[in-house]
């Protein structure tokens, strides 16, 4: 039985390009971001993958990425479930600020702590642990049952919501997960065992 879970971070967004903290704000994809999402779909097609269900966040950059992937696979009408649980980490008061401006205001060290610590949230926002607190139950109760039934599941989401999910999937420590970088538009293909542990992992780079 194939128990396939594919995770994809959305393609480059307009605010990624401008070096802004994005969080729950809702910019669209850049031209490069659209191309990255379509290329992700093509790589999944080349790998022979088709999906039974897709999940994405409540934010348009992830939704558009998901749709581009499904279009490339000839599965434009696949059932796709959107949920705020998969949203990017909420950056609170940092949202919309240029990262260099934030460093000028609060200092390099403080901004680094907010960006890279596991459990220290920015003002009015979420830490990675807070993000995990909504991602993990959603995955366990809603997404994982489809995978364990032998369905192929696509999740198109965000750098930090996917980091939280990968932390749980791979059993990583807080130090290990904050060091992980997820490139935009690069599919990660997991095959799971019947007990939900990982049988294999493949990153479909260009």
In short:
By secondary structure, this protein is α/β, with parallel strands linked by helices. It has helices at residues 14-17, 31-46, 60-72, 99-106, 108-116, 128-148, 159-170, 174-178; strands at residues 4-9, 53-56, 80-82, 152-157, 188-192, 198-203.
Report on this model:
The chain has eight helices and six strands. It has a single domain, classed as 3-Layer(aba) Sandwich (Rossmann fold), CATH 3.40.50.1240. 37% of the residues are buried. A six-stranded mixed sheet has the order 3-2-4-1-5-6. α3 (60-72) links the parallel β2 (53-56) and β3 (80-82). It has 206 residues and is of the alpha/beta class. The chain starts with a strand and ends with a strand.
What is the fold's blueprint, element by element?
Blueprint: E1 4-9, H1 14-17, H2 31-46, E2 53-56, H3 60-72, E3 80-82, H4 99-106, H5 108-116, H6 128-148, E4 152-157, H7 159-170, H8 174-178, E5 188-192, E6 198-203
Parallel strand pairs: 1-4, 2-3, 2-4
Antiparallel strand pairs: 1-5, 5-6
Helix pairs in contact: 2-3, 4-5, 6-7
Following the backbone from N to C, one meets helices and strands in this order, namely EHHEHEHHHEHHEE
CATH class: Alpha Beta
Enter the CATH topology name. Answer: Rossmann fold
The CATH superfamily label reads Phosphoglycerate mutase-like
DSSP summary: helix tally: 8
Shape: globular
């Amino acid at each position: 039985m194939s128990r396939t879970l594919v995770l994809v971070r959305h393609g480059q967004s307009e605010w990624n390009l401008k070096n802004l903290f994005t969080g729950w704000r809702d910019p669209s994809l850049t031209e490069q971001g659209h191309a990255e999402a379509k290329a992700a779909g093509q790589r999944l097609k080349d790998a022979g993958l088709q999906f039974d269900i897709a999940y994405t966040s409540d934010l348009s950059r992830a939704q558009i990425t998901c749709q581009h992937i499904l279009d490339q696979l000839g599965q434009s009408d696949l059932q796709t479930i959107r949920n705020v649980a998969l949203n990017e980490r909420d950056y609170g008061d940092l949202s919309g600020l240029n990262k260099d401006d934030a460093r000028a205001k609060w200092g390099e060290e403080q901004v680094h702590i907010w960006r890279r610590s596991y459990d220290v949230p920015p003002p009015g926002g979420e830490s990675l642990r807070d993000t995990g607190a909504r991602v993990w139950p959603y995955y366990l109760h809603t997404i994982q049952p489809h995978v364990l039934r032998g369905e192929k599941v696509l999740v198109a989401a965000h750098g930090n919501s996917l980091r939280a999910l990968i932390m749980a999937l791979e059993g990583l420590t807080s130090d290990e997960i904050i060091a992980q970088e997820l490139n935009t538009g690069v599919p990660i293909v997991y095959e799971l065992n019947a007990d939900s542990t990982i049988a294999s992992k493949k990153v479909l780079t260009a």
